[in-house]
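Same chain as my last thread, 505 residues:
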Amino acid sequence: MSGGRYLLAVWQRGKIMRVKRFAVLITFLLATSCGADGSDDTPVKPMFSVGGTVTGLIGSSMVLHAGSDAVSVPARASSFVFATALPAGASYSVTIATQPSAPAQTCTVQNGAGTIASANVTNVAIVCSTTPQTAIYVVNSSVIGRSSSQISSYQMDPATGTIMRVVGANTYAPACTRTIALVQPTRLLLASFGSPAIDLYLCSTRIASADLTSGNIAALKEVDGPLEDQSPIGIYPHPGGQLAYYLRGEHAYDEADDPADVAPGQLRPYNTTVAGGQAVGTPASAGVTPRSAVVDPAGRFVIVADEGAGLGSETVLRTLATTTPTAPVAASLYTMPTPPWALAYAAAGPYVYASSPSASSGYAFTVDAAGKLTPIGGGTFASMPGVKLYATTGRFLFAAAPDSGMVQAFQIGGTGIPVKVGVALASGGTTPVQMMIDPSGRYLIVLNKGTNEFRNADGNLDSPGQSTLAVFAIGNDGALSAVGTPVIASNNALSFAVTTFVPTF
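reply #2:
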């Protein structure tokens, strides 16, 4: 019995000894793979970030993606980095999920894709450019009894034609400002009217300029004035970029004045490189009652529409040669069968078009290098009565009649004779006073003055009606379609100018 137990014990002892040897082996293996404190010493793979630089960003709400990771980049940021790090050998691809807005910008990615090479990625480059915006500057003649006019600034979305918001604060201009024009990329020239009949209302004739910074009016300067009492008709830039022609009408006068004392119109050159404008050279006679003018795109001549009313003179289209830009001289006359008013120049012919409010037809001409006009065919085309405004893209002609408040589109055919397109549309307000094509050539902008100022039966001054800016999209065939709702543009607005600018805010 005892022997059996011994053998068992031996056997069990041998077994136990083998177990102990196995346990020692396991303990040794564990000891070689763990620290003395029992922690895991397995090597951790290094991780690397993905980021880069940002150039030209002034808009907000830009979002970048890299796979499932996203980062929002604030306005004016100069760098970015994604939150998720990647190991060496991992691939990455950076894209722009949302382009910036306010202002609209277009951004592109450079060095946006690659493989992590045991270092942080810092060479992804986001480069942003700003979409040029359209600015509209509207000048209103001061309400009688106030000491100044006002320039209101608006921004139009060039993609949709929608007038979105005021660009900057309103700026005061000389009292009774009548016309405004863009004469330099960042300079506006203005002219106000004056008359002995309204001296009590602080109106006098002045020339002034307003300089622009990022679409905002930064400086207003008056140089020429007060001048003799005049009625500004318009300011027409010379294509050379340093001059503009100021077209003035007859002196204003009240009913007690002698019409024989009324001075004729005049075309006067101004140096637009000088703040405020500077009269230069020699002015030229513009006839008795000038209504509008066009400048040859090559700068060779100016054509003036002279209504000639009041003094029994001829009604003519008057060509002034500008071989010497600062000294326009009479070159030729074309006698009109009815008094002319609006003018338009289409370079395709080239052609010149003239309206006559007293007729239902427009007049079409070819024009040579000296500005001499020759009627096309019978010389007329079917239009509508009361037209006093023209605008043209070169392919299309647009006409507006202030009394009826209607706008009509025309195609300019191969013969140069305009043909109506579609039906006449309402101008988007009361009494259209100016039309202009936006810089992109896609939209027609119409300024409606509103109703006139007048005194009621008690002799008190009533407020004028509200002025409006209306925008029409120009179709491929020239047909017009209204864009949105006309925007209120102060009161008694008389003129506007349009330019493009790159926002920097």
